[in-house]
Amino acid sequence: MNRSGKIYSTDFNRRQMMMRIEPRELSYKAFPASEATAAGMKVLPMNPDAVYCTVLHNHTYCERGGRPLHMHLILPSQHERPDATWPLLVFVQGSAWRQQHLDANLAPLSWISRQGYAVAIVEYRPSDLAPFPAQIQDAKTAIRYLRKNAGQFNIDPEQIVIWGDSSGGHTAVMTGITPHDKELDTDVYDGLSCEVKGIIDYYGPADITRMNEAHSTMDHAGADSPEGLLIGGLNVLENPVQAEPTIIMNHISQEVDIPPILMIHGNKDRLVPFEQSVLLYNDLKQKGKDVEFYKIEGADHGGPDFWSDEVLGIIQAFITRL
Predict the structure, then answer these.
(1) How many other C-beta atoms are found inside a 10 Å radius of the C-beta of residue 36?
(2) Which of 39, 64, 262, 307 is in the most buried spot, having the most CB atoms within 10 Å?
(3) d(Cα 76, Cα 91) in Å, to the nearest integer?
(4) pLDDT of residue 1
(5) What is the end-to-end Cα distance of the chain in Å, rounded?
(6) Cα 133 from Cα 101, distance rounded (Å)
(7) Which residues of 142-171 are buried (b: 16+ CB within 10 A; e: fewer)?
(8) Tell me, what's the pLDDT at 15?
């Protein structure tokens, strides 16, 4: 009898002891499926091909000038293939080369990851702390770090594509086409390659000296403009020596192979003129490079138009053919 006056049945206690199953360490395969049922219960089959993603926030990949640099990792997994390796998309978030918000495209990139890709959203040093080529150096360092730790993240180190939007698009293209340019690199994780299989450019600048030749809602030439800060707080048009290394076309030649490039840009972009992508595309075609170019009619600088099912299908098709 307990304090409330209730009497517990010794038969009940004995039965509970007899029914108790001691916990055991079992593999998923060895663990028995429950046969319990309930009236009205509905049954769904397990999908062995379903992909589940987890996010590793603010993972440090290196330190530059006393500043830790981070990445967000979106890592897929499958119940039936816990040790599977996944192609990697390295995404460089645009920010006018200033401080990035790495979460800005986390939601749509998570959708991409569920299609069977690991995604690394990479931080670069902002231009007010480190001008060009710091951003290219950091992206290359991140790629080498991911190759070095491919086993830890279940990444296929031979299947890496770099992708970026706006200033991140500029960084992605420059990173992808200059893997052997030591002036645009560091020796961090030396001995590992920063090469990629393909490049995706969402509305990135191509030639900062020509951005004010088209309609825009902002100045692109002044010392305090994004482009001016990129070259150290200088007027772009008055400092061609500093501006020329940032121009993508100056790093492309007919003789040197570069990865295939996919370009997507809206023709009502108020920040990075659509003409920038036209300049780059024409140069790539003239030099015999593998490039696809899509204009999104009426699209502004980013937004939902670039994450529609149709556009994401184009992205997947491009990656699949590499």
Answers:
(1) 6
(2) 262
(3) 16
(4) 46
(5) 75
(6) 20
(7) bbbbbbeebeebbbebebbbbbbbbbbbbb
(8) 62
- β-sheet bridge partners, residue 60: 70
- Residues (pLDDT < 50) of the chain are 1-2
Question: What letter represents residue 83's amino acid?
Answer: D
Given a contact cutoff of 8 angstroms between Cβ atoms, the answer to whether 183 and 133 are in contact is yes
CB 122 within 8 A of CB 142: yes
Amino acid identity at 230: L
Q: Is beta strand 67-78 parallel, antiparallel or unpaired with respect to 51-64?
A: antiparallel
What the block records as the tokens of 167 is 């200033």
Helix axes 309-321, 106-114, angle to 10 degrees: 50
Contact 198, 117 (CB under 8 A): no
Q: What is the pLDDT of residue 257?
A: 98
3-class secondary structure per residue, the chain: CCCCCCCCCHHHHHHHHHHCCCCCCCCCCCCCCCCCCCCCCCCCCCCCCCEEEEEEEEEEEEEECCEEEEEEEEEEEECCECCCCEEEEEEECCCCCCCCCCCCCHHHHHHHHHCCCEEEEECCCCCCCCCCCHHHHHHHHHHHHHHHCHHHHCEEEEEEEEEEECHHHHHHHHHHHCCCCHHHCCCCCCCCCCCCCEEEEECCCCCHHHHHHCCCCCCCCCCCCHHHHHCCCCCCCCCHHHHHHHCHHHHCCCCCCCCCEEEEEECCCCCCCHHHHHHHHHHHHHCCCCEEEEEECCCCCCCHHHHCHHHHHHHHHHHHHC
Give CA–CA dist 61/11, Å, rounded: 61
Give the model's pLDDT for residue 138. 98
Q: Are 75 and 109 in contact (CB under 8 A)?
A: no
Using alpha carbons, select from 41, 52, 98, 49 the residue that is nearest to residue 74.
Answer: 52
CA distances from 247 to 21, 26, 32, 251, 273 (A): 69, 58, 62, 8, 15
Check residue 17 and give its pLDDT: 59
